[in-house]
TrEMBL record:
Residues 113-253 form the Peptidase S54 rhomboid domain. This is Rhomboid family intramembrane serine protease. It comes from Pengzhenrongella sicca. Coiled coil: none annotated. InterPro entries: Peptidase_S54_rhomboid_dom, Rhomboid-like_sf, Rhomboid_protease_S54. Belongs to the peptidase S54 family.
Amino acid sequence: MSTFDAAPPEPPPVCPRHPDRVSYVRCQRCGRPACPECQRPAAVGVHCVDCVREAARAVPATRTAFGGRARGGRPVATLTIIGLCVVSFVLQLLVPGWTSRWAFSPAAGEVEPIRFISSAFLHSEGNILHLGFNMYALYLVGPYLEHTLGRWRFVALYLLAAVGGSVGVLLLASPVVTATSFAWVSGVVGASGAVFGMFGAILVVLRRLGGDARQIVVLIGINAVLGFVVPGIAWQAHLGGLVTGLALGAAYAYSSRERRDLVAVVATVAMAVLLVGLALAKYASA
């Protein structure tokens, strides 16, 4: 009898993502083994996570009416902004000097431009209703705008409206400090400028989509009157944020389908340049 070398047995199939796991179940698309952790149920058999991810990339992203990427689930950007404001308010109560360190005044903004934005995440330490009202207003309009405009447009709108509010305070403040006027050095805090920017944007968006904007008009009117009647309210920030929100909202909502992404980017950059230019011009003239 002749002798021959027996072929070594083939090793059992293992999952390519987890080589320590034997799997006899194979992906119906690529044919590779997939362990239970990497299996995804399909219409026929199972698919591996890599094939599922590749198929998801091939599916065109769903867009909103204004070109934003439609996302399900929670309004992450809105909740993040609210969370930052709440955390900052807690720090205001616990950390000495936190408010004065980040509050905006025309004099402080000239030295530290970050205050044009940082002040929008602060609120009056002695009045929790200041924080509560702004966050409630943001929660009412924020999710709708975040979904309709898309996440990056919404974040840009909020931040630029916050800057617009500070610029409004700067433009309407007198650099001359007298015994009765401290506008140039008085600190301003609150997300009201940014919230008014949201009001302006949602007003334009609702009109563009044919919705009923009367409630927003009434809300803007009531708050505008309160700014002149109730002492301690920076109506200049409300005005600056509102104008910024109206302008950006119009650019986002009324651009053509073919050019809406380009117009959104150009309008955002142009607004940022305009606000910086206005601030520099005011400082130069002062």
